[in-house]
Amino acid sequence: MSVAIVRLGTPRAEGEGLRIGTVRRPPRGVPKVDFARLNYYDVWYPNLAPSVELVKDGLAAVDDQAWREFVKKYRQEMSQPENARTLDLLAALSHQTNFAVGCYCEQESRCHRSVLRDLLGERGASIQIL
């Protein structure tokens, strides 16, 4: 059992399980009834997405220093009690069932999902490497 970190809208891995969209906004131009069928997500959970302001900072982070500042601020957001409890829950669930969390960004290394991977790992999650 494990959690996979994925790019939303990509084909699902065999046995991936429930896909959770940790994004601020649903996919544009896609009817809600098609989100799961088109491999975006089964459940939308924007609570683990960066705040609207921070999303802008992350997208504008063109150098390592700006990216490190984004990571610092995103980690601060995720340390809020409600977010920290969600991360703890997902880490625990990763030992009981397969599921995935993801975002739309093409490059994981400059996406909040790379930080989510680290945060879940720090909480002892079983993380599937795809």
Rg, nearest Å = 14 Å
Number of E-state strands: 5
Structural class estimated from helices and strands: alpha/beta
Helix tally equals 4
The rough form would be described as: globular
Count of discrete structural domains: 1
The overall pLDDT average reads 95
**Terminus-to-terminus distance:** 14 Å
Tell me the strand order in the biggest sheet.
3-2-4-1-5
Task: Give helix and strand order, one letter per element, not per position.
Answer: EEEHHHEHE
Share of residues in strands: 5-15%
What proportion of the residues is helical, as a percent range? 25-40%
What's the main sheet like?
Answer: 5 strands, parallel
How would you describe this protein?
With 130 residues, the chain is an alpha/beta fold. It has one domain (3-128). The protein is built from four helices and five strands. It has helices spanning 52-60, 64-78, 81-93, 112-122, and strands spanning 3-7, 18-21, 43-44, 99-103, 127-128. The chain has a five-stranded parallel β-sheet with strand order 3-2-4-1-5.
Précis, in short:
By secondary structure, the chain is an alpha/beta fold.
Question: Which key terms come to mind for this protein?
Answer:
130 residues, alpha/beta, 5-stranded parallel β-sheet, 14% strand
